[in-house]
UniProtKB/TrEMBL annotation:
NCBIfam families: dipeptidaselike, PRK07318.1. The gene is pepV. Its cofactor is Zn(2+). The lineage of its organism: Bacteria, Bacillati, Bacillota, Bacilli, Lactobacillales. Signal peptide: none annotated. This is Dipeptidase PepV. Keywords: Dipeptidase, Hydrolase, Metal-binding, Metalloprotease, Protease, Zinc. GO terms for molecular function: dipeptidase activity. Its EC number is 3.4.13.-. It is an enzyme of class 3 (hydrolase). It comes from Apilactobacillus xinyiensis. Belongs to the peptidase M20A family.
Amino acid sequence: MNWKEESEKYKDAYLEDLKALIAIDSERDDEHGSEEFPLGKGPAMALKKYLEFGQRDGFKVKNLDNIVGYIEYGEGDQTLAILAHADVMPAGEGWHTDPFSMTIKDGKVYGRGASDDKGPGLAAYYGLKMLKDNNIKPNCKIRFIIGTDEESEWTGMKHYFDVEPAPDFGFSPDAEFPLINGEKGNTSFTIKFDGIKIDDSKPSLTKFESGLRENMVPRDAFATLTGISDADKIIADFDKFISNMPVEGDIASKNGNLDIHVVGKSAHGMEPKNGINGGTYLANFISNYQLDKPSSQFIKFISEYLHDDSRAHKLGVNYVDDIMGELTMNVGIVKFDAESGGFINTNFRYPKGVSVDEINHNLQLCAEKFDGSVENISNMNPHYVDPSDPIVDKLMSVYRDQTGRTDSNPEVVGGGTYGRMMPRGVAFGALFPWTEDTMHQADEFQPVDDLILAMSIYGQSIYKLSCE
Ligand SMILES: [Zn+2]
């Protein structure tokens, strides 16, 4: 079968279905969660829409408690799984089109979910539909599984793995091409510090605020110092600091208080080197001054162990694996309030060869020196599928054939995809290397040609995995 020609025939039907999916605002909505719709109505409606397509096209479908569901084809001892998601990130500001009304402009599909993950997920579904419409009988069971909480806690997909038998192998069309066969471990820690009794006569830190999420490099950082007697000197030092360091900022003094603002550069936390951490730079600046003990413990810990050290050398957990690369650390949230105390949220992406206990232990030792306490708040172990596994081999060969990119190779990333839910699971598409990544952004788009090519790649891939 000529998969490219075949998928062209489905273009109009595909775009019509995609329009219906994008029209549903399927952001997780806890505020309106109910027993019937635990994640809110939107994610469940998008799931139902997928299942309606499946039913319409003659597949067996099942909805598991409105948080996950599947579309099934074929029979056999083994199960091939395709893991997609129907939920979306909040639309946010800055769109030039209605995010929930699919718009095609200059050959591109605009709308929330166009590239993450309604466009790619539906392309994979159409890949499966092409098999069925052409009466191709697979020699295993194929399940297209739709999660509804990928952007937060994977509630739906985890539920599937709790109540259904685990699939034997598969892929998730929820990342990029060519293929991701390795994902670093991902763990987060909170380091807590006690508060202080404010004594206006002594220099102390009354407020420190930086960062929104543990997996983002914070751009802005704000701090207030009180009880300052040498404000003029600090202001002069700050101007020098700004001119010597890769940050900007401003400082203002008001009745013995100093308000300091540092501006770095935000970036995704999986590669902190792409950003400039406003928070740790500000702590580093403040560490030059004598403050009361609790303030200075908090500031010194950041300055000595976390600042400008994305590979965590100072904590002693730096590590490089030949295949999976370097351990990275992001200092995502830094907050201090004189009364309630302070906390720092750090996120580590680590290759095989490092354990979360090791990171925990070293962090503990360093934090104790400054009376901080450490808590591990989440962890996912590293995931790696050998490139010689047929799941990698077959998918790569289809990708190379259909794109002509014969020199492309599987990749290891710091992010987490549904692929890691199966020992033989990978992420496969649908963002092509030649297309801009607009996932989670305003004006999210995916070129129509990319989506149809993805459909063709998925069709042939499912065929190779289930029939050969
Ligand atoms: Zn996604």
